[in-house]
Specification:
The complex is a heterodimer of chains A (405) and B (103). Chain A is mostly helical. Chain A has one domain. In chain A, 71% of the residues lie in helices and 0% in strands. Chain B is mainly α. Chain B is built from two helices and two strands; from the N terminus they run ααββ. A two-stranded antiparallel ribbon of chain B has the order 1-2. In chain B, strand 1 and strand 2 form a beta hairpin. In chain B, helix 1 runs antiparallel to helix 2. The chains are: A mainly alpha (405), B mainly alpha (103). Chain B: Keywords: Membrane, Transmembrane, Transmembrane helix.
Chain lengths: 405, 103
């Protein structure tokens, strides 16, 4: 029963992960009208689906970077397995709920925050609540980049800067090279370049992010005794995760697409291409070098960089500042929700506790969805002028989400 | 703060690789577009008003498409990397040109 809730919640997280991150790949192509909004999300959805199936490697130890609920080989700690793994399942469930709630909340505000941070934050919070501070892997053991600091915080500080620098240099060079070329050549050429580079980002996203959820579900299955092989993932898990992330991507987080595509800078096709190439290069280079990072941070850094690099372009630093603020509080905020959920579930105990926090998640999600209907953003108005319709990303009173929790 | 050391060590490598691929390939692409425009002649490039533009130069087209081909190769390398790492393989640059090896 608890296991079923964990699986459903994990797929729910995967879904929010998809629609939260559509913007990373497609915001620029939509903003420059290189692709029609619906076409862009469909393309990104398909590429995410393919990407998720391509990830054969097992990401079972995904949680090891931040919390100590697994042995190094991926099997759950024996101390957590008493009583059919309930302790571990509850930690994972509470952590996932923390991640989803924070993803939905930032979506409501139209802020591109990192889904991986939300997931890690939720898990860290639930682990602190369940096992105490020592249950969290804060700093690694000193032999490699590891722990909350090394895998989450430092990359989050460094990767947007790198992406921004690369995008700024790329944009600057492109404008230098094409100065004086007729617009029909630049517009058309860079449109194609943009579509290509954005597709690459989508594909990389599918392989990276769907894996995390697959790892979490498989961990839960092992804890509950329904799966024993730490070297592979059940096919249905892979298929379900791939479909969940693709559907989420296709649904499109229009609010976030709007913020990234129109809010930060007015993007032109050459800038869009420079930004997406930079994102793709940084994501691929860092995963090649084993440097964990968030697609969201990279994409945002790239878009900002493309604004800095274009002569005479204007960057809305206020919007950028709000995003950075959201990044800073993502981990702690998701952790607080995760911890609260664990305490509540643990207090009620057993299956009833898990059901109660699951219902709370549904209530919170429904509440935020209803709130979003007051100022809908979808494929019809995603490209409206930023300054004329500020509602979309204007700060919504935190009351709505606070009471929903 | 051993983590900071590891992070900075990784960071400059990522920066170097990304500058080459993420800014270098778009620059080649831009050169390709420039070259096509130069090859097309006429109004494809800004020239003095009142003067007819230069006549088409076929060599511009050839150079342009060669540059695009280089960019496409770069992108294919990226896709190969994604697919290879998905199957537990890695790209090795040991022999200068990339080969797929076991991780």
């Amino acid at each position: 029963m608890i296991l079923a809730l964990v699986v459903v919640t994990a797929l729910g997280f995967d879904f929010t992960n998809g629609f939260h991150d559509t913007a990373n790949a497609m915001a620029t192509s939509i903003a420059t009208r290189a692709l029609r909004p619906k076409t862009a999300v469909a393309l990104s959805g398909i590429l995410n689906l393919i990407g998720a199936f391509l990830s054969v490697e097992v990401a079972l130890t995904v949680s090891n970077a931040v919390v100590r609920i697994q042995n190094p080989d991926g099997t759950p700690k024996a101390s957590l397995l008493a009583d059919g793994g309930t302790a571990l399942l509850l930690i994972v469930l509470a952590g996932l709920i923390g991640g989803i709630v924070w993803n939905l909340f930032t979506w409501l505000l139209g802020l591109p925050s990192s889904s991986s941070h939300a997931l890690f934050g939720g898990l860290v919070g639930a682990t602190i609540a369940g096992l105490g501070w020592a249950g969290v892997n804060w700093n690694g053991n000193g032999t490699k980049l590891d722990g909350v600091v090394g895998k989450v915080i430092l990359p989050a500080l460094i990767s947007p800067v790198i992406a921004g620098v690369v995008a700024a240099v790329g944009t600057w060079i492109i404008y230098k090279i094409t100065v004086g070329v007729a617009q029909r050549f630049t517009e058309n050429g860079f449109r194609w370049g943009q579509i290509g580079s954005a597709s690459l980002v989508s594909l990389a996203h599918g392989t990276n992010d769907a894996q995390k959820t697959m790892g979490v579900i498989t961990l839960a299955l092992i804890a509950a005794g329904d799966w024993t092989d730490t070297g592979s993932i059940p096919f249905w898990v892979k298929a379900a995760c791939a479909i969940a992330i693709a559907l989420g991507t296709y649904l499109g987080g229009w609010r976030i697409i709007r913020t990234l595509g129109k809010g930060l800078v007015e993007i032109s096709p050459p800038q869009g291409m420079a930004a997406e190439s930079s994102s793709a290069a940084v994501i691929l280079a860092s995963s090649h070098l084993g440097f964990a990072l968030s697609t969201t941070h990279v994409a945002t850094g790239s878009i900002l960089g493309s604004g800095v690099g274009k002569p005479g372009a204007q960057v809305r630093w206020r919007v950028a500042g709000r995003m950075v603020a959201a990044w800073l509080i993502t981990l702690p905020a998701a952790a607080v929700v995760g911890a609260l959920m664990f305490y509540l579930g643990d207090f009620i105990g057993g299956v009833a506790g898990a059901v109660v926090i699951f219902v709370l998640l549904l209530v919170a999600a429904a509440g935020m969805w209803v709130r979003s209907r007051f100022t809908p953003v979808d494929h019809t108005n995603v490209n409206d002028e930023w300054d004329r319709a500020p509602d979309a990303a204007a700060p919504v009173e935190p009351v709505s989400a606070g009471s929903a929790l | 703060m051993h983590n900071l050391g590891f992070a900075l060590e990784g960071a400059w490598k990522v920066l170097a690789a990304s500058l080459i691929l993420g800014a270098g390939l778009p620059a080649l692409f831009a050169l390709g577009i420039r070259s096509l425009a130069w090859g097309a002649g006429g109004d494809a490039e800004v020239h003095e008003t009142g003067v007819t533009g230069p006549r088409p130069r076929p060599i511009g087209n050839v150079v342009g498409w060669i540059l695009f081909a280089v960019v496409v190769l770069g992108v294919l390398l990226g896709i190969t990397f994604i697919v290879a790492s998905g199957f537990g393989k890695a790209l090795s640059f040991e022999h200068i040109f990339p080969t797929i090896v076991d991780k």
